[in-house]
Structure formats: C-alpha cells, structure tokens
Amino acid sequence: MRRFIPLFALFTAVAMQFVSCTEPAEYRYCEGATWGTTYHITYKSSKNLDDSIITVMRDVEMSLSPFADSSIISRINRGEDVKIDSLINRVFLASQEVNAMSEGTFDPTVAPIVNLWGFGYKNGTGDPTQEQIDSALALVGIRECSIKEGKIVKKHERTEFNFSAITKGYGCDLIGEMLSRNGCDDYMVEIGGEMALKGKNSRGEEWRVQIDAPVAEIDTVVHEQMTVVALTDCGVATSGNYRNFRETKNGRKGHIISPLTGQPITTTTLSATVIAENCMIADALATACMAMPIDEARKMIESRPGTSAMFIIANPELNETADQPKTAHGKPSGATGASPKASTGASPKAHAGQKERNKTLADSLLIVTTSRFPKQL
Known about the structure:
Layout: H1 7-21, E1 26-34, E2 37-45, H2 50-64, H3 72-77, H4 86-101, H5 111-116, H6 130-137, E3 146-148, E4 151-153, H7 164-181, E5 187-191, E6 194-198, E7 207-212, E8 215-216, E9 221-222, E10 225-231, E11 234-240, E12 245-248, E13 251-254, E14 269-276, H8 279-290, H9 294-302, E15 308-314, E16 338-340, H10 348-364, E17 365-369
Antiparallel strand pairs: 1-2, 2-5, 3-4, 5-6, 6-11, 7-10, 7-16, 8-9, 11-14, 12-13, 14-15, 15-17
Helix pairs in contact: 2-7, 4-8, 7-8, 8-9
C-alpha cells in the first residue's frame, strides 16, 4: 500500500527548513580558560559553534601538549613507536622553516634545556650546571630531525619536542579554519594574546587590536595601552620575557632559552609583536625575535613577504636593567600581548590619567617597527 504525505505537512516542513537556513547571522562570544591561559573568541554566525571551538582545543591538546601524558607528542618524547597526525606534521614543518630563517634561534627541540631551567613540562632545578646544559645541548637540533613514513626521526633517542611556542598560534588558526568551514566570514580568535583575524567586527570595521605595555605586579598584570592597529585576514602574536621568570642564586632568569647556548636570553627587547599570514607563523617568529639581537630580528622580518613586526625595548638612556624598566610609580614594566580594543566608557578624568600613564610609558620604553607595520591609530 502506498503512503502519501499530506500536502500541508510537506509545505510546513519545507517552510521550516527555509526559515532555519535563512536565519540571520549574529556576532557571538565564547570565552574561558585553556592551556594554562584564557581565550576570547568573537564570530558572526547563524548558529552557536561554541562546542566545536572546545572540540578543536581538545584536539590540539591531545596532539601537541607535552603537559598531557597521553598526547601524541608526549608519547613521541617518551620514545614510543607512534605515528604523527596532521597537526604535528604541520607545526613540525613550520618549525623547521622558522628555525632556518632565524639561524637556529627558534628550535622546539630545546625542550630538555627548558626543563632544566624549570620552565618546561618536567621539573628542573631552575639553576642547572654547565655540564648539564652541555649534555642537553647535544640533543638539540630540529634540522637534524625528519619525518619518514608518518613518524618523526629524532636527532637522538633522547631528543624531545616542546611546540608550545607555536601551538597557541596554530590553535587560533585551527579554530578560525573550523569557523570558516561553517560559513563564518568574520571572526576574531584570541588565545593567550595570540590572534587569528578575518573579516570585520560588529561595527563593520577591521578588527582593532591593542598592543599592550602591561605593568607587572606580583599577582596580576595591569595592562597599559601602547598603541592600537586595525587588522584583518592575518595572524598576530606577541612574545615577551618579563612575566615568566625564575629567581635563582645567579639572579632572575627569563623563560626564553637559547637553543644555541642553553642559557636564558638577555636582550633589551621586552616584547616582539609579529603580524603574518597566519597566527602559527606569527607565533614562532615572535619567539625567534625575542631570542635574537634586534637588528637581526628586524632583518629577518623584513626579508619575509607579508610580514611585519613591532619591538618594544627598554630606553637605554634610563640606566635601568633590560628586564625591568621602571615607570614613574617604581614598578617593573614590560610589554607583551595583544588584545581586542574595546570602548570602556571611562570618564574624562580617567582618560586624562590614561594619557599621563601613556606618556610615562613612552619615556621608559621605545617602539621600533619594521617598514610594513600598519599605521597606528
């Protein structure tokens, strides 16, 4: 016996589908904590994609986090016979690219030395001997590693990888790619200060990105605005050395370790903000810039098409240490991070105070940009 669908029921189903498909898109917001930091994501969509965002973050963690014992990279670090996935393949090749550009100053195989200094995924003394450093240096060298038949071939069986200096940026890109696949043409993905940007903001403008000069406190970070730029269809990342440090018997040591010497980096550069075609490359280049003399870092950025950078350095005329330039309030200040620019509705008095603080920061810090860095607003 043939069955017939009533005409009115069929019309209702088609009408409901039409309404669902044509539901107007709106700007949505997703925020929370992940990978030991925070994230803030704005995207324009007719449907809620928050669950998909969290799924991407979880995928990244289970592939690339050396802090997750069951992740693929942790298993590789332990010497297990395991094939890599597409995520590791992508960051591995990008890391080799930036390693070559930076003449070895960016190298995720520095992981054993980072651990020795107490900044990695294994507890170290935080004040290693030269003998320990030399022993670990023999394991470093991503150029001498390769991928064959879906597996990483290490320089040495004890070589380990920590892609943390590129993973946040790559995570931003992956979330952006997921949003694009779901029809989103406008989004801002920010994880721990790194950003992937596409399209326009809710005002129909390019995304306003604030580059910070935060004042470091013991328990928190007070952000001071250095400048604002309008950006879209790119990745933005900032690396800095003022916030993550350890006190040792030989003084304060920052978390950025040279793969060439095995020692914490000490330069006058307080932060480097890089703009590139994607956030993964921007993230890696920003870290490399912090490990290089500023003239070499600028030359590297200038040599790469479509890439620009802003460096914030300590004013050498103030006779302050490079890692702790002082403000008028006598507190250490540095510069890391980019953040979405928002209107605060502050009073004229507050704006006047902000201008005064900006003037103080301008006196204590110097801004150096490459030729293609966008106009500051």
